[in-house]
Task: structure prediction
Amino acid sequence: MAAAAASPHSAASILRFTYQLGRSIYIPLTSRCNSVPLPVTRGPGFALNSDVVDVLRNVRMIENSPGWMNGAFSDESSGRTDSSVHKVAFPEYDLPLVTSLYNYQDEIKSAASTSVATSNNTSNDGNNIQSMKRIHIQEDSIQPSIEMLVDQVAAHLEHDLDIHEVCIAGEGEPTLRMDALLAIARTVQSFNQQQQQNDQQSRKQIKFRLITNGLCYSIPHLGYSNNNSNKILLPKLRYTMLRDLIDAGVSRLSVALNTANRHEYDVLMQPACYTGGGRILTDDDTGGGGGTNANTSDTTTNASSSSPYPPMMPGTAHDLICEFIMDATKLGMDVEITGVDRPEIDKVEMERLARLLLSVAPKNKKGRVGRRSVVRWRPYFE
Result:
């Protein structure tokens, strides 16, 4: 007799959307990207741990195949008899690039606002995460849901005492989904506050790091969903999203600048961006937000003709990344600039530009500028 199809909730709950490397937990928020995905830039020979690839595939499946739960459920990782972790090639990335995950033309905010706890356990034990402050979550209609991601992160924090860092990373660009990013950051922040209140000296505060391509200033509505479209975010006030990150406990950024040449950046990264940035549409606007819904089949890398935002001039994407790095540095965030050690990249010019961008740091935050190399170079795999 054929097995009954799993319900959407139960099937989704089986999938893992987090992976662990050393003492860090990594959470991929999306598989979609507005440039060449960062793992792809590492070269055709780049390989990852098999458990990491399983998680990335899970995110791709649930996000881009809405009908997958109608059939029999199958999870590659759950069916393995060999539990050993081994290196496997990074799966081919064949998803079209997007400018946004949300359709801002839709005036119906279908996603309901829900207040959820990070655990279903209602224990009153003040020494664990169950007593953590409830996080107010507004779902954004993207899968995996914010609630599922928060629950899995909370489970790691509760059961693994060796975790020192939570890192938002993956093959997609996390700033395309700011609501989910901030919800997870606030979960970690609330956990840290609970540890302080309980005076648990045996456990250090969990650090929070965001790995990004730095193109968030070009994303319509700065990556906030329709639920947060009432925010007053104008291009000249783009750093507001950095304030939100800092308020949620995000203090460390890893930004992939990759080159000092703005036109070489366009060739390497193929940014799918608009100049609209954080502009919020008013009732008088008739066009869309330049967004391409990740759940539709007609997603393309080209600019939408209905967008009120003009496409970027060559080199503009690189300029916005530099602006983003400087703004974050000025606000006191710990910014790490990264690049891939490809033979055609001028590493001397890259180091020079990185040192200049980080020189705007407050006097008490100039640690990276004083180093011999201010760029973290990642190896390229032929």
Notes: The two ends are 48 Å apart (CA to CA). DSSP finds eight helices and eleven strands in the chain. Residues 239 and 327 are 7 Å apart (CA to CA). The chain has a mean pLDDT of 78.
